[in-house]
## 1
Amino acid sequence: MKRSALIFALPILLGAASAASAQTGPQVSVSNPWIRYLLPSVPAGGYLTLHNNGTSPAVLTGASSSACGTLMLHKSENKSGTEIMVKVDSITVPAHGEVSFSEGGYHLMCMKPNMKLGEHIPVTLKFQDGTALLLTMPVYGPSGPSGQ
Ligand SMILES: [Cu+2]
């Protein structure tokens, strides 16, 4: 009697664990990713839009790419008429909301670009809850996807 009760309890525990992990993972998708590449010696900017399809905020805490050396989260700010870039530790995407990276705002900063125009580079986005999102970003020149 005791043994059969234990076996019966196991599937219930497993079911509860998988339901909990499904709720905590940020359900984030990406649109319009691209890299603005100039020269190997000049850091390249990365732009995209993050969409949070989940019911809790998703907090982006870092990024990495084998094509970038270091890949940082940056924000451009206007300080007394001068545009400067600051490193940010996290970017929060509200539940059911989106955050667009753009020139003059949030961007990924690819410190040592090792890429060519027309390539797609692999990028990993890391979130506060331990989940990661893998994507590829197409490499464009200074004028971007809408340019020549
Ligand atoms: Cu930057």
Note: The first strand starts at residue 28 and ends at 36.
## 2
Amino acid sequence: MGINHKSIPFHLFLTTLFGLSMAGHVFPDPLDHKRPLDERIDNKDEHYQHYRQETTGQTENDQWIILPGKVRPYRNTDFEAELSDRSVAYPETIEGRIIHDDKTGDWIEFELDGEHVVLPRALVVRKTESGEDDSYSEIGSERLDRNIPLPLEYVPGDLTRLNQKWNFHGSDYSKYLRAEVVQTIEAMLEEARRNGIHIRVFSAYRSSEKQRYLYLKQVEKKGLRQNSVAKPGYSEHQLGTAVDLCGLDPESVASFDFDRAKEGQWIADNAPRFGFVRSYTRENQEETGITPEPWHYRYVGTVDRE
Ligand SMILES: [Zn+2]
């Protein structure tokens, strides 16, 4: 018996009802091409450790950000259970621990006005402190994986508008990427064009706030266990370095066959030369937890860039 939208009380979502529907992503890390190999491996081990901690449940408390606009926690891990009298709301932070219920899934247990209450884990996101340094600004080494989200307040400092020529959508839907990424992708798409291959960008930078609406909308539609839209903080699109690519044909937008189309093939062959890598492949699916997305590329720079 799974959790589906029928078993989610409507009051959870009263204040979260807008946004667009679009596939989003949680993220892998191992794309850090610029660091020495050893350092990358160390970094990965850290991530795995974090993952184990999180999935096996942990005793220590952690900071979590509430995602819905307003939500009343339960008194126990049963959707039929009584609700607390108090509510919590985005962007409040709670300190709590993960608990697991075989029937209803993962929850966060925390204290609210002296009372022990719980919220489905799908309605919170782990809080990442923004570093004092500019730790997310170096392209290719931004830290983001399936258990360590970006700080929700993170916005790249150098977002630049993509030339409308490469935008799949009209100018009402301008697209932004970090300055270096705009420059590089425009050069790449121009080279494709000279070879008779016409590629467009259908998604670029997305703020954590936008991702939050997309996420809650999808949860509202498909239930707490939906896995097609990432929680805010877990989308590579927040980095301003990730793009979703398509051809001129609307059918090619978010097409699982994109890598078999001539546009997708050209990109697969040429992207690495420009410093773009495919984030979600069949090979890393288990590690990333994401279905392969042949249209999604992340710019990490080239190895000898510096
Ligand atoms: Zn994408």
Note: The pocket of zinc ion is lined by residues 25, 203, 237, 242, 244, 296 (CB under 6 Å).
